[in-house]
């Protein structure tokens, strides 16, 4: 098995190269999951991501453009400058501050009212799951909130163009993706069962609820209630 760092770098390179075709290749024609997407969009509306929001792995901005409807300011982070350029074009809002960074090497520069990530948790290597959530916790002062959404299974398995090609033994969480230029790339892909994800996070002290729509899930909640050391200061005028 390749090293984890090598896979993370490969995943970063893959998304940089995919940026220009990302929007056109995320949904099949006549999107069969439109109703599920609408359910999750409604959940985000009900959640109301107010105040100072951090979006991790923001991509081309499909969710950033929803966050700006509520947030007073957004930090949108992604390792791909190409994704960020497209996000900037799509969202076109001066309240969004863009950061090009690798989530796994980044430290929060501020505290946030809300941390949001879409279609990202499935790309976090299982061995880095706890560290990733510790990072989210560091970004959120008491009262802060998290919202996340992702695929619960290979939703596109009947779509030749979009279905996942799994590599290695089951549990390797590794897939091969192809781009339009024919190049092949390895990507980490963990399909979390919503109930298992909720139990795992609650076991870590998060007060979260994770709901499935069938092919997708979304979760929302608050960080563990424990003393913080070295956390960034709370945002001013937080919600
Ligand atoms: C599946 S896309 C999701 C994009 C967006 N959140 C959405 O839902 O449309 C994954 C995103 O993660 C970014 N990414 C991959 N590895 C990363 C890393 N190590 N640190 C930060 N961003 C990363 C990619 O550039 C890509 O924009």
SSE topology sketch:
Layout: H1 4-25, H2 34-47, E1 51-56, H3 64-67, E2 71-78, H4 81-91, E3 96-100, E4 114-118, H5 129-139, E5 145-151, E6 165-167, E7 174-178, E8 184-188, H6 194-203, E9 207-212, E10 216-222
Parallel strand pairs: 1-2, 1-4, 2-3, 4-5
Antiparallel strand pairs: 5-10, 6-7, 7-8, 9-10
Helix pairs in contact: 1-4
Please explain how this structure is put together.
The chain is an alpha/beta fold and 239 residues long. The protein has one domain (4-23, 52-222): Rossmann fold (3-Layer(aba) Sandwich). Helix content is 30%, strand content 24%. The chain is built from 6 helices and 10 strands, in the order ααβαβαββαββββαββ. It has helices spanning 4-25, 34-47, 64-67, 81-91, 129-139, 194-203, and strands at 51-56, 71-78, 96-100, 114-118, 145-151, 165-167, 174-178, 184-188, 207-212, 216-222. The strands form 2 sheets. Strands 3-2-1-4-5-10-9 form a 7-stranded mixed β-sheet, sandwiched between helices. A 3-stranded antiparallel β-sheet has the order 6-7-8. S-adenosylmethionine is lined by residues 8, 11-12, 15, 57-59, 62-63, 78-80, 83, 102-104, 118-120, 123.
